Amino acid sequence: MSTVKTSQFWDRLPPIPDDKPVLIAGPTASGKSALALRIAEEFGGVIVNADASQVYDCWRVISARPSAEEEASAPHRLYGHVAYDQDYSTGHWLRDVTPLLSGEQRPIIVGGTGLYFTALTEGMADIPATPPRIRAAADQLELSKLINGVDPGTLQRIDTHNRARVQRAWEVQQATGRSLGDWQDNTPPPMLALCDTVPIVIDVDKQWLLDRITRRFDQMLETGALPEVEAMRHLYNPSLSAFKAIGVPELLAYLDGHMTLDQARERATIATRQFAKRQRTWFRARMKSWNHIDFSK
Question: Can you tell me which family this protein belongs to (predicted)?
Fold first, then answer.
């Protein structure tokens, strides 16, 4: 956010009434956390995490969580509050965030996990938990086989390149006998109506974002990403969501001698760029009515 002059910064934001929660979505490395912090400092509020990787207590650097200094400058919630081996879904997040919606401080909900925002503002179906045996079976299947086991209607709603999303749809269909799309079509009312919020999507120039992604991973390495991953190396389990965070598999491969640090850096950067592309596409398709803000120009 430092590339934007202060006057330009505030001029580009929508009005922020004191009584409305602020929602900030955007691709990785786009400056979401910096924006949330500036809004909190200027208008007040508690910053609430809506990023699936930043919930884990083992990842501060590699998930780009706010620093300890940033967390001290404004209240932060739902950051690093989940153990590495804990199952944590969108439903878990929705239950955790609900009490914060009626607290004394206005929530500023920020992150890159689009499903968290849609569950909050569009509602979420109360789908039964997946039995362990079905989860274990899904973990062993190739992505193509998972896709073949999901109904066409649901496939049109999800990112079929995102294994976690496809596997979730497969598991729901196997466990309940109903498609994920069918469950979604029978959802209860949302916890928070979009019209009662200040919804912001950071929608920046593609090349500007790619440059920031490259610089940010180098900064992660400089500020302790490698020791952070090494500390969790003995607990590595590829089936756990915590170990699927971008940068973790790549640095583990380096630590195990399967690639050089430069190769790990390149693969993690490429994976982050691909992830950011999927995020941008998803936000533009699903958040058309939000305020789209570009700080890159």
Answer: Belongs to the IPP transferase family.
